[in-house]
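User: Structure with S-adenosylmethionine, tokens only please.
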Amino acid sequence: MEMEMNGVTTTNTITATTTTTSESQKKARLAILELAHMVSVPMSLVAVIRLKVPQAIWQGGSNTPISASQILAHICPHGGGYDAENLQRILRLLASYNIFVEHLNSRGERKYSLTEIGKTLVDDTEGLSYAYYMLQHHQDALMQAWPVMEEAVKDPTAEPFKKANGEGAISYYTKRPDELKLAVKALCGMSIPLMREILDSYDGFQGVETLVDVGGNNGISLRSIMEKYPNVSKGINFDLPEMVASAPHIPGVTHVGGDAFESVPSGDAIFIKWVLLAWTDEECKKVFQNCYKALPANGKVIACEPVAPEMTDESQRTRALLGGDIFIMTMYRTKGKHRTEQQFKELATSAGFSRFHAFYVDPYMAVLEFHKSSI
Ligand SMILES: C[S@@+](CC[C@H](N)C(=O)[O-])C[C@H]1O[C@@H](n2cnc3c(N)ncnc32)[C@H](O)[C@@H]1O
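Assistant:
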């Protein structure tokens, strides 16, 4: 406030500045405490998934608000000493992150239903959901890598996962059937809704007869593409031999084991989803060159990958993508990364591709087309 007397003006200015500073300091201290306690959030999510809380509330679609004791009655009908108060503490935290809706009545009783985010944790008819992605990311071997994350800065020659567990993540999973099963369920749980989204809004599979999926894992993406596009009469699911060894039979799909750094099978188009992020720039270039060789003159690569934003901001999209980037650095490859659209373009151009289009069909993953011909 402007005052006529200089002395008063000065005093008021100092008071205002002091108040602003102390307000911003309070906010800063609160922000640091929220971050310091942040680990409670994913671990609470893991706990409710392991306890099967989402299914207990969902009850085949009713999603009727129920209390922590009622949830426990579903989970453990014969008692078992489970503690409803502690479950409610977990549910309250997760309600603050919009996983559950909290319904508080006048007697102070709390009941919970699932939000749209919470519903992503409920298994579909194929027994899949995002719950497995959450569990996979927080299993013991991966959790061992976080405390040594700074090693990725000090010595980027081996990823923190390897330093903590003595071997790389892929080799770790492939030697352990339970961990491998969880990894496949995590991939499929995320892939099925994403593929639905892609196929609803992207029509680049039209006119393709033979489609190769590089790093296609068990072939589930090819299955959904071929269901929607019958013109894709031949699908080649290409992955490491140990991965395709247990892949299921899918009509029209041939599973081929091999190494994309050596060569990739030929087709009219090559699909590659959620694979490039785990490779270095040199490795991506090598695989793009192998794809170029395997395609006809009018062929294209259809990549589907997270695309990092150019600008750093506080949005949920930026945080989800940059968080995923750190996950890759820590678990899979210190020099694997989430790339920007421009970085993808440069990689593909360096391998000989002449035309590039990006389709932002989903907030997390974009479809990126790399064409051999310039028309
Ligand atoms: C994150 S998964 C993605 C799987 C699938 N494309 C999806 O979207 O669900 C990465 C896949 O790349 C495969 N992969 C890794 N290195 C490979 C290589 N050198 N050649 C072929 N496939 C490879 C892995 O075995 C794994 O199945």
